[in-house]
Amino acid sequence: MNNYCNRCNKKVCASKVPIFQNLNCEELLEIENTIGHKEFSKGDTIFLEGDPANMLFFVNEGKIKLYKYNKDGKEQILHILSEGDFFGELALLKDSEHKFNSKAIDNVKICTLTKSQVKDIIMKNPKIAIKLLENVGERLSAMENLVQNLSTNDVDARIAYLLTNLMDKYSQKINNNKSIKLPISREDMANYIGVTRETISRKLKKFEEESLIKIVGIKRIIILDEKGLKNYIQ
Predict the structure, then answer these.
(1) E strand or H helix at 27, and its extent?
(2) Largest CA distance in the chain
(3) Over 50: is that where the pLDDT of 92 sits?
(4) pLDDT tens-digit profile of 145-202?
(5) d(Cα 227, Cα 211) in Å, to the nearest integer?
(6) CA angle at residue 69 from 64 to 72, to 5 degrees?
(7) Residue 7 pLDDT class (50, 70, 90 cuts)
(8) Which one, of 14, 182, 172, lies nearest residue 83 by Cα?
(9) Residue 194 DSSP code
(10) What is the arithmetic mean of pLDDT over 218-224?
(11) DSSP E strands: which ranges in 70-163?
(12) Which of 128, 129, 137, 66 is nearest to 93 (CA)?
């Protein structure tokens, strides 16, 4: 969706968010006038587990990660979010605390709405509530898939799952292949699936030798055999 209001030619960050996609120009601008804006540098903490959860967050620019620490004190990434994604929706249902940590992967701009502001918006536009519920369902489904794939001892399957996950969101088609611009470092990839950075590097090289992928520097992976990669997940 174009993030400009066609009638007033004003750029509004709310237009980037899928739950607001059916709103007209006036409705978008009304939301824009209530939205808070925050900026974070790469590596900055946005909030910590246990902090009060009373806002809905939208990623306007950049990428963030949501994560917890496991019993061994190692970071476990839960989600990678980028432009247009939002989080904190469960806080709208009841007063609670954040169940995870949030950190900027690169320089980010985030828009915020308070719990009361979101309720006012939903009262005027009930369809937004349905969009929020759909997002909660998708997020829970993604979490179930993550847990299921992490429960296997097959590291190849875990890495194949991660690559297909990143492919679905961060790839573009080039010469009949999908090219992934990696949003996270090798270390974050390792934290995502619970292995060491050395294991990630070794297994990616193995996939490249099997002609499943092609590694281009540290920020791009080309999927050469999508079906073969997905066979590891079966």
Answers:
(1) helix 25-32
(2) 56
(3) yes
(4) 777 766 766 899 999 989 998 998 899 998 889 999 999 999 999 988 888 999 999 9
(5) 12
(6) 145
(7) very low
(8) 14
(9) T
(10) 94
(11) 75-81, 86-87, 96-97, 101-104, 108-114
(12) 129
| 110 within 8 A of 58, measured Cβ to Cβ | yes
Mean pLDDT along residues 205-225: 95
Q: What is the DSSP letter of 167?
A: H
Query: Checking phi first, is residue 75 left (phi over 0); if not, alpha (psi -120 to 50) or beta?
Result: beta
Are the C-beta atoms of residues 200 and 186 closer than 8 Å to each other? yes
Which one has a higher pLDDT value, 42 or 91? 42
Q: What is the pTM of this model?
A: 0.79
Structure tokens at 158: 């875990």
> How far apart, in whole angstroms, are the C-alpha atoms of residue 67 and residue 191?
9
Q: Of 119, 184, 133, which is closest to residue 19 (Cα–Cα)?
A: 133
Q: Which amino acid makes up residue 58?
A: F
